[in-house]
Amino acid sequence: MTHVLITGGTGGIGKATAIALAAQGCDVTITARDEGRAAAAVAAVRDTTGRAVRVVACDLASLASVRRAAEQIRTELPSIDVLINNAGVAVFGRRRTTDDGFERQFGVNHLGHFVLTNALVDRITGRVVNVSSAGYALARDGLRWDDLQWEREYDGWQAYGASKLANLYFTWELADRIAERGVTANAVHPGFVDTDLGYRRPEEGGKPRPALESVAAVESGATTVDIAALGTPLTAEEGARTSVMLASDPALVGVTGAYFDDHQQRADVSAIAADRRQSARLWAVSEALVAST
């Protein structure tokens, strides 16, 4: 049986991915930071597929929580065939930080998964799938190396793009480091998907999310993104298709260090995103950042 671990499996693309892979007969474990949402996701998978799902508490905004989750997973799972680093946040208002003081998008989208993956890497036997985004291009000049935490002139869109670019850099470097064990790592652009990304939940002090079709544009700092120009959003199930393919398609055995788009096709990335010197630099910087927490 294929053992799959999915971060952020309580809603949106993560829950849809869990349902699709459970329907294929996989043994699925999801991470969750909210017990109520976790219970609802477990029920949704069970009602749809008839299969049970294991839940591990994990808040990617707290590296202490990530490390506790990794220890639990190491105790409960003898091996992980597929790790899908799916969870993510988008912060377009004021700058917010993680429990460890990192800019929240960089901390959750990149560093949380960096720590979790490295804590489990010796247990991973098959594939790592990192959910990135074509939004990496919002980081037009690459990572802001002298201000990775966006402490000056915060621009939520560009910081989001930087975190998605970090997902790509992490993928390239990880692919190189695990290749000798026959384990692969690839990145995914799920598409423009109708999820709660970018909105704080009401229980966290946020307002209910408006209907996506009523949102014309979102401004943050110097950047404005025309949401209406992105076209009709995909459903969560449609957005999960590429992750599911990379996790399960036998034709992709041995394919590594690649980026796949929302049409399930291998795609090129920009010259900045493909720069392997930058990916190696980010790995070293990330090791130093998390070592102090």
Give a quick summary of the entry.
The protein is α/β, with parallel strands linked by helices and 293 residues long. The protein has helices spanning 12-23, 35-49, 63-76, 104-120, 156-178, 236-239, 241-248, 276-291; strands spanning 3-6, 27-32, 53-57, 80-85, 124-131, 184-188, 217-220, 223-226, 259-260, 266-267. Helix 3 (63-76) runs parallel beside helix 4 (104-120), helix 4 (104-120) packs parallel to helix 5 and helix 5 (156-178) crosses helix 8.
Describe the structure.
It is a single chain. This protein is α/β, with parallel strands linked by helices and 293 residues long. The protein has a single domain (3-291), classed as Rossmann fold, CATH 3.40.50. 37% of the residues lie in helices and 16% in strands. It contains 8 helices and 10 strands. It has helices at 12-23, 35-49, 63-76, 104-120, 156-178, 236-239, 241-248, 276-291, and strands spanning 3-6, 27-32, 53-57, 80-85, 124-131, 184-188, 217-220, 223-226, 259-260, 266-267. The strands form 2 sheets. It has an 8-stranded mixed β-sheet, with helices on both faces. A two-stranded antiparallel ribbon has the order 7-8. α1 (12-23) runs parallel beside α2 (35-49), α3 (63-76) runs parallel beside α4 and α5 packs across α8. The radius of gyration is 18 Å and the shape is globular. The N and C termini lie far apart (36 Å). Mean pLDDT is 91; it is low at 198-212.
